[in-house]
């Protein structure tokens, strides 16, 4: 039986679901990591307190037991709910096969335009094309990462703004740099079209920790790591230029 290829709207819906999945994984990872440190500290201090209190005081012993039980319950929740849920995306499998960079880039641009840029009146200006390079990696995953970079830039740009995608080869890598002017209000303005989840856009408006990107960009980071590349995201400052950069390995000419 012949199969039909998914429509553009179905593909964009799939891309959005992938972004949401990896953002969920990233948030759960942060929760798991950031909760374990204080829980370990509480557990350790419980032993310190036990040595200091009167062993004959039943109320104090119940308090210590309650602290330990609470810590154990929280650790069990992390292991049975958070860590189990993360198993779906803990490892990012990639189907490595050489593919032309230009084809992947053009498809990502087209999808980003249809997903949001056209509705916002945002122009995507691709420079350095055609590059003629061949990327050694998973074309689907790389395309997802670039699409997300472009859509996020459109989300964070004012109406009728211009996003610049600069494509360049650097040694053994191809650099995909998405430059735009950050307009923080655009991320949460109900009067303009959106594509990414409201939760993701709101969190992206908040100050980011040093070396950490907005949660919604987790997919880009994971794709870069899986390919031995690198992803960088400058903190957003209202009215200031911002750049998202993805570096991926290319095959030698």
From TrEMBL:
Which UniProt key words apply to this protein?
A: Kinase, Phosphoprotein, Transferase
Q: Where are the transmembrane segments?
A: none
Question: According to the UniProt record, what class of enzyme is this?
Answer: transferase
Q: Matching Gene3D superfamilies, A to Z?
A: 1.10.287.130, Histidine kinase-like ATPase, C-terminal domain
Give the PROSITE patterns listed for this entry.
HIS_KIN
Q: Which residues form the Histidine kinase domain?
A: 30-252
Q: What InterPro entries does UniProt report for this protein, alphabetically?
A: HATPase_C_sf, His_kinase_dom, HisK_dim/P_dom, HisK_dim/P_sf
Supply one GO molecular-function term.
Answer: phosphorelay sensor kinase activity
Q: Which reaction does it catalyse?
A: ATP + protein L-histidine = ADP + protein N-phospho-L-histidine
Kinase: is it a keyword of this entry? yes
**EC number per UniProt:** 2.7.13.3
Is this entry keyworded Oxidoreductase?
A: no
Identify this protein by name.
histidine kinase
Q: Tell me the classification of the organism that encodes this protein.
A: Bacteria, Pseudomonadati, Pseudomonadota, Betaproteobacteria, Burkholderiales
């Amino acid at each position: 039986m012949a199969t039909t290829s998914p429509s553009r709207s179905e593909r964009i819906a799939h891309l959005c679901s992938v972004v949401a999945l990896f953002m969920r994984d990233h948030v759960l990872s942060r929760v798991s990591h950031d909760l374990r440190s204080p829980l370990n500290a509480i557990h350790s201090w419980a032993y310190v307190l036990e040595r200091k209190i009167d062993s004959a005081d039943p109320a104090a012993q119940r308090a210590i037991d309650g602290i330990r039980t609470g810590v154990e319950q929280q650790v069990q929740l992390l292991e049975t709910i958070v860590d189990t849920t993360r198993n779906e995306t803990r490892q990012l499998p990639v189907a490595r096969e050489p593919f032309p960079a230009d084809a992947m880039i053009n498809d990502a641009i087209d999808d980003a335009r249809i997903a949001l840029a056209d509705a916002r009146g945002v122009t995507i200006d691709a420079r350095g094309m055609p590059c003629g390079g061949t990327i050694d990696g998973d074309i689907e995953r790389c395309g997802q990462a670039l699409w997300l970079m472009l859509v996020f830039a459109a989300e964070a740009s004012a109406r009728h703004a211009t996003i610049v995608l600069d494509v360049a080869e650097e040694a053994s890598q191809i650099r995909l740099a998405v430059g735009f002017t950050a307009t923080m209000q655009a991320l949460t303005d109900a009067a303009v079209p959106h594509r990414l989840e409201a939760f993701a856009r709101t969190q992206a408006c908040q100050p980011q920790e040093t070396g950490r990107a907005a949660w919604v960009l987790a997919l880009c980071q994971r794709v870069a790591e899986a390919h031995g590349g690198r992803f960088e995201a400058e903190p957003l400052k209202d009215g200031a230029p911002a750049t998202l950069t993805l570096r991926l390995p290319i095959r030698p000419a």
